């Protein structure tokens, strides 16, 4: 058997390929960014061909850097930015529009209209999601209605829809020459088109968006030995089985070995995504969280999760860098924030395109409140880090209310966790310890685990669980009063951002 498992992590800002050995240790990686196309305020697009090109490059260069070839890979897993919608022509492989990214808000009127009658409740009940611009279905509807010829092509069966996993699987398995059109249950659970109980596309939901079933990929388990086929073996490379496919936040849940109900992880990247494993029971949220599929391994029952999705966390740090210019790199925010002992009364709510969980308010906009002449850049930097943590606190509180689970530790990962001050603030603001694993690339690791489980490379979840090891831990230091007062101020600041714009 080949000694390694590969994993493609196709994220919002970059695509990386990583190779892991049997111990789950990293052997190789290469990563490339792709362009963020911003045609108008609120619109965010990617070029699917650029993403495919980047994917091929990072696979080749990561293998070469480690002196490996594709024949050294027992299997490959794919994990991806979720919800982002791609529609392409099956005959040519050409995209019929740029990918419409999860952050894009152009479909606000579609989402609003659905929520004005009982369709909103039907979507909540069947798909586990509130009608919102975040999810794929409205984006597909927009392409069908706004791009010439796409609806006709979709009805003829020539236009295919997929999230980034589907696009990559189709291209890796041959594209127009017989590529496999498939997705997994976790990605399908983010479209607003899948019924969480049947794990199949739902005709009533498809009808709400006018989406022909023929456009849609087949839905399979997240870990499956055959459904996703093999890489096409172009340019003399080996045909490697693709045996793991799952959305990036679900992959991080697997990489953090959250296999038991009550276990949770929080990933801090562009946004934050906190997932709580609720087992084979489907828990419906009354507090603004999403119900989603965490993973399905082979024929086993699906495992569900409650998710709190936060749109802007690490990207608020980018805003300090790119728009305000008060830091020159993301890592500088820690030094600047550490120049002061608190935020000097400042709160920053980065509701740049509204607020996701648990508020789901597209009429909110960002605000910096509590300013006095005393305040400096350092206070704003610290308030940015606190905003990341307070938004996570909102979600943790909603989760406790929905599930009755009180976290005893929060497992963390993602780019922002490099910021030790931010992680200390997170422990302080939550009042629970925060724990970071040795392998911080939990997303790629989770995709590799899903792929390796399907082929017998790893024997089962117990073996994977034994590989998890803590690298760093932060204990709460704030007093209860400090925590209570700080959070009360945050809630007041959030109130100030609501009902700020009229959204059409
Ligand atoms: N030291 C740091 N302090 C705070 N934020 C950071 C730091 N390093 C990186 N970030 C933020 O982390 C994000 C990138 O994390 P990553 O996990 O790669 O995100 P994604 O997968 O969403 O692209 C960026 O938004 C960046 O601003
Ligand atoms: O690509 P990331 O890491 O920013 O994750 C994006 C999420 O999957 C969006 O739901």
Automatic annotation (TrEMBL):
<feature type="binding site">
    <location>
        <position position="249"/>
    </location>
    <ligand>
        <name>glycerol</name>
    </ligand>
</feature>
<feature type="binding site">
    <location>
        <position position="14"/>
    </location>
    <ligand>
        <name>ATP</name>
    </ligand>
</feature>
<dbReference type="InterPro" id="IPR043129">
    <property type="entry name" value="ATPase_NBD"/>
</dbReference>
<keyword id="KW-0067">ATP-binding</keyword>
<dbReference type="InterPro" id="IPR000577">
    <property type="entry name" value="Carb_kinase_FGGY"/>
</dbReference>
<feature type="binding site">
    <location>
        <position position="415"/>
    </location>
    <ligand>
        <name>ATP</name>
    </ligand>
</feature>
<feature type="domain" description="Carbohydrate kinase FGGY C-terminal">
    <location>
        <begin position="265"/>
        <end position="454"/>
    </location>
</feature>
<comment type="pathway">
    <text>Polyol metabolism; glycerol degradation via glycerol kinase pathway; sn-glycerol 3-phosphate from glycerol: step 1/1.</text>
</comment>
<dbReference type="GO" id="GO:0019563">
    <property type="term" value="P:glycerol catabolic process"/>
</dbReference>
<feature type="binding site">
    <location>
        <position position="16"/>
    </location>
    <ligand>
        <name>ADP</name>
    </ligand>
</feature>
<feature type="binding site">
    <location>
        <position position="270"/>
    </location>
    <ligand>
        <name>ATP</name>
    </ligand>
</feature>
<feature type="binding site">
    <location>
        <position position="318"/>
    </location>
    <ligand>
        <name>ATP</name>
    </ligand>
</feature>
<keyword id="KW-0808">Transferase</keyword>
<feature type="binding site">
    <location>
        <position position="12"/>
    </location>
    <ligand>
        <name>ATP</name>
    </ligand>
</feature>
<protein>
    <recommendedName>
        <fullName>Glycerol kinase</fullName>
        <ecNumber>2.7.1.30</ecNumber>
    </recommendedName>
</protein>
<feature type="domain" description="Carbohydrate kinase FGGY N-terminal">
    <location>
        <begin position="5"/>
        <end position="255"/>
    </location>
</feature>
<keyword id="KW-0319">Glycerol metabolism</keyword>
<feature type="binding site">
    <location>
        <position position="415"/>
    </location>
    <ligand>
        <name>ADP</name>
    </ligand>
</feature>
<feature type="binding site">
    <location>
        <position position="12"/>
    </location>
    <ligand>
        <name>sn-glycerol 3-phosphate</name>
    </ligand>
</feature>
<feature type="binding site">
    <location>
        <position position="248"/>
    </location>
    <ligand>
        <name>sn-glycerol 3-phosphate</name>
    </ligand>
</feature>
<feature type="binding site">
    <location>
        <position position="134"/>
    </location>
    <ligand>
        <name>sn-glycerol 3-phosphate</name>
    </ligand>
</feature>
<feature type="binding site">
    <location>
        <position position="13"/>
    </location>
    <ligand>
        <name>ATP</name>
    </ligand>
</feature>
<dbReference type="Pfam" id="PF00370">
    <property type="entry name" value="FGGY_N"/>
</dbReference>
<comment type="similarity">
    <text>Belongs to the FGGY kinase family.</text>
</comment>
<comment type="function">
    <text>Key enzyme in the regulation of glycerol uptake and metabolism. Catalyzes the phosphorylation of glycerol to yield sn-glycerol 3-phosphate.</text>
</comment>
<keyword id="KW-0418">Kinase</keyword>
<dbReference type="GO" id="GO:0005829">
    <property type="term" value="C:cytosol"/>
</dbReference>
<dbReference type="GO" id="GO:0006072">
    <property type="term" value="P:glycerol-3-phosphate metabolic process"/>
</dbReference>
<feature type="binding site">
    <location>
        <position position="419"/>
    </location>
    <ligand>
        <name>ADP</name>
    </ligand>
</feature>
<feature type="binding site">
    <location>
        <position position="82"/>
    </location>
    <ligand>
        <name>sn-glycerol 3-phosphate</name>
    </ligand>
</feature>
<dbReference type="GO" id="GO:0005524">
    <property type="term" value="F:ATP binding"/>
</dbReference>
<feature type="binding site">
    <location>
        <position position="248"/>
    </location>
    <ligand>
        <name>glycerol</name>
    </ligand>
</feature>
<dbReference type="InterPro" id="IPR018484">
    <property type="entry name" value="FGGY_N"/>
</dbReference>
<feature type="binding site">
    <location>
        <position position="134"/>
    </location>
    <ligand>
        <name>glycerol</name>
    </ligand>
</feature>
<feature type="binding site">
    <location>
        <position position="12"/>
    </location>
    <ligand>
        <name>ADP</name>
    </ligand>
</feature>
<feature type="binding site">
    <location>
        <position position="270"/>
    </location>
    <ligand>
        <name>ADP</name>
    </ligand>
</feature>
<dbReference type="Pfam" id="PF02782">
    <property type="entry name" value="FGGY_C"/>
</dbReference>
<dbReference type="InterPro" id="IPR005999">
    <property type="entry name" value="Glycerol_kin"/>
</dbReference>
<dbReference type="GO" id="GO:0004370">
    <property type="term" value="F:glycerol kinase activity"/>
</dbReference>
<dbReference type="InterPro" id="IPR018485">
    <property type="entry name" value="FGGY_C"/>
</dbReference>
<feature type="binding site">
    <location>
        <position position="314"/>
    </location>
    <ligand>
        <name>ADP</name>
    </ligand>
</feature>
<feature type="binding site">
    <location>
        <position position="83"/>
    </location>
    <ligand>
        <name>glycerol</name>
    </ligand>
</feature>
């Amino acid at each position: 058997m080949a000694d390694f498992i590969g994993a493609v992590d196709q994220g919002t800002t970059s695509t990386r390929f990583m190779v892991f050995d049997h111990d789950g240790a990293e052997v190789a990686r290469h990563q490339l960014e792709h362009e963020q196309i911003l045609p108008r305020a609120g619109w965010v697009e990617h070029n699917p061909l650029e993403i495919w090109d980047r994917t091929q490059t990072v696979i080749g260069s990561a293998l070469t850097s480690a002196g490996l070839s594709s024949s050294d890979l027992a299997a490959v897993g794919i994990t991806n930015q979720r919800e982002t919608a791609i529609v392409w022509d099956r005959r040519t492989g050409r995209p019929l529009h740029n990918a419409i990214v999860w952050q894009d808000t152009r479909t606000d009127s579609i989402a609003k209209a659905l929520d004005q009658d009982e369709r909103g409740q039907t979507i909540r009940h069947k798909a586990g999601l509130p009608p919102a611009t975040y999810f794929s279905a409205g984006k597909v509807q927009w392409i069908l209605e706004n791009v010439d010829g796409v609806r006709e092509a979709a009805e003829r069966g020539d236009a295919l829809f997929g999230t980034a996993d589907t696009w990559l699987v189709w291209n890796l398995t041959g594209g127009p020459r017989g590529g496999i059109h498939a997705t997994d249950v976790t990605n399908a659970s983010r479209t607003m088109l899948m019924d969480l109980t049947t794990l199949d596309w739902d005709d009533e939901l498809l009808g709400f968006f006018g989406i022909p079933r023929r456009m849609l990929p087949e839905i399979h388990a997240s870990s499956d030995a055959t459904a996703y086929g093999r890489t096409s073996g172009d340019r003399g490379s080996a045909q490697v089985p693709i045996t793991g496919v799952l959305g990036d936040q679900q992959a991080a849940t697997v990489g953090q070995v959250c296999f038991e109900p009550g276990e949770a992880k929080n990933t801090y990247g562009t946004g934050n995504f906190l997932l709580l494993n609720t087992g084979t029971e489907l828990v419906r949220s009354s507090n603004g969280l999403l119900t989603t599929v965490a993973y399905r391994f082979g024929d086993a029952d699906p495992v569900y999760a409650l998710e709190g999705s936060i749109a802007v966390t690490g990207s608020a740090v980018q805003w300090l860098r790119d728009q305000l210019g008060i830091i020159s790199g993301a890592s500088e925010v820690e030094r600047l924030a550490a120049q002061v002992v608190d935020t000097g009364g400042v709160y920053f709510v980065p509701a740049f395109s509204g607020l996701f969980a648990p508020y789901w308010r597209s009429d909110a906009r960002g605000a910096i409140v509590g300013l006095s002449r005393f305040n400096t850049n350092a206070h704003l930097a610290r308030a940015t880090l606190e905003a990341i943590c307070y938004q996570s606190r909102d979600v943790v509180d909603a989760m406790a209310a929905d599930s009755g689970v009180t976290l005893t530790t929060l497992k963390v990962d993602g780019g922002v966790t490099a910021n030790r001050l931010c992680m200390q603030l997170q422990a302080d603001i939550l009042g629970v310890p925060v724990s970071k694993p040795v392998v911080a690339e939990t997303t790629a690791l989770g995709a590799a685990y899903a792929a390796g489980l399907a082929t017998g490379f790893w024997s089962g979840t117990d073996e994977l669980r034994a590989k998890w090891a803590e690298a760093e831990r932060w204990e709460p230091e704030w007093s209860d009063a400090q925590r209570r007062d700080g959070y009360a101020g945050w809630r007041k600041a959030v109130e100030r951002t609501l009902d700020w714009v009229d959204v059409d």
